[in-house]
Design brief:
A hairpin with a 2-residue loop joins strand 3 and strand 4. It is globular, with a radius of gyration of 11 Å. The protein is of the alpha+beta class and about 80 residues long. The protein contains 2 helices and 4 strands, in the order βαβαββ.
């Protein structure tokens, strides 16, 4: 998967991963992909709901070694 930017939100508690992601998404062009790495387990539900409500597309979410990785494609 082509990733345009990576955001390290590991160690941040809710709602900071979403707050930081929102800021980073503003810097991307439509169609570009942001990878977010987080350790807050609440982020699983948060990112899905946030992407649906903002028009961005959550392409993938996975967990490995306690780190959640999200790939979000910027929408219109």
């Amino acid at each position: 998967m082509d990733v345009n930017k990576v955001l390290d939100a590991k160690g941040m508690a809710c709602p900071m991963p979403i707050v930081k992601t929102k800021k980073e998404m503003k810097e991307l062009n439509v169609g570009e992909v942001l990878e977010v790495q987080a350790t807050d387990q609440g982020a699983l539900k948060d990112f899905e709901a946030w992407a649906n409500s903002t028009g961005h597309e959550l392409l993938q979410s996975k967990e490995e070694g306690g780190v959640l990785t999200f790939h979000i494609k910027k929408g219109e």
